């Protein structure tokens, strides 16, 4: 039996004018800034007007470690949101925006799949409403102003060897990881080493996703450390006098983007930090606004629960004062088999033993999420090759770990296929058994926070960090940054820092290569193993197959 592609399904969508989607949430049309007919930004005035309302219940969707077999976290997030509306609940979805880097690299689209998608798909995976371009421009403005300040006399006495602020571009381009700038003689400034990160790793992206409003945004931008003097005292973005102009560039980008699912249910798509190198959650302003507009808000955190969910709990919830009522952990039979040692080409054949062998990865994620005091529901994202025996093996394993697994067929059937999952999530969320708490206190020393994550979440035996890194952490504590949470930059493919070590490894170490202070965002980034904050393209990038067909439609992006 043949199945339509995601883009074929998306193009057949019966989209409603965005004003009708706003009506479902009680957003008057004058508070919507339309971008075409099917997407719009929500005004800050409206957001301010609903702050006295009671919050709905927050549902976090996370997953096992990603495999080439596919897990479908965003697809499940969308399917669950549609499923909740299908069973008569007022629900909406909050997800992140897609980066051009992986879209033209190897990941493809980021709007769900099958009959559980957010539309308009093409726009969401390309320029959308321009938020990423605004973030890149604001970041680049600060980069230019730093070098300009140095050129015109360096009144702040910046040590050009200690400029911390790297440049960004929203594309996978490994050639830019380490560069020399200001070459070409006196007229071009003072030569120094620099480098690029991908836009989603920018502290500006993190700040936009954690700020409460424009005033908070401007304050945080000003608090960013961009360089150090010879005496090691920090130079802030506010010293460069850049935060005002950066805020102007980000004014519209701060407003959440309203779109719709294939079933015309509302969704906020806003912000896009990666979870392997950044904090991996959509914006605080989108999530907190959604909680005022719906009874159930379904949001996702990037990659596996060891990254996205950990950062959602320890960073986003801590900073925003929110807490999930339930967590949905997405797994697939195919991924269990791959964790059990089956090659991708052989995943279609029934192999119950491989499923059982691969389940410990799922089991560890269940234990980790429960350690935050939040109940877990496992969603088995159904593939047509799954057999009853394989599905039952996953259900039995999950039951033995004190949770329940529900088969969900949203990819194939839309909300009808996710109704059972939605009912179970409502049952768990409404039971009120969540007792959320981060796994470390603000007052814990920075290195102990790193060790807590490594040992409790990754199950590592130790954290390896040389004296220079430990001394840097102690210096930041002395400067008043000791209460900040930790943002781990680590491979998404494993609990360890070795991307090839699947399953539930123990006895490993976590080597820390570098630490970066994101004083404006309000966390310390810990770069582990070989993870890169500027990805590279694969041998055969998706871009090679992306083009316009004779009808002017995009092909190859999805």
TrEMBL record:
What pathway, per the record? One-carbon metabolism; tetrahydrofolate interconversion
The record's section on SUPFAM superfamilies has: P-loop containing nucleoside triphosphate hydrolases (SSF52540)
Provide the GO biological process annotations.
Answer: tetrahydrofolate interconversion
- Entry EC number(s): 6.3.4.3
Supply the PROSITE patterns for this chain: FTHFS_1 (PS00721), FTHFS_2 (PS00722)
Reading the lineage from the top rank, the first entry is: Bacteria
- UniProt binding sites for ATP: 67-74
What is the protein named? Formate--tetrahydrofolate ligase
Q: Which gene encodes it?
A: fhs
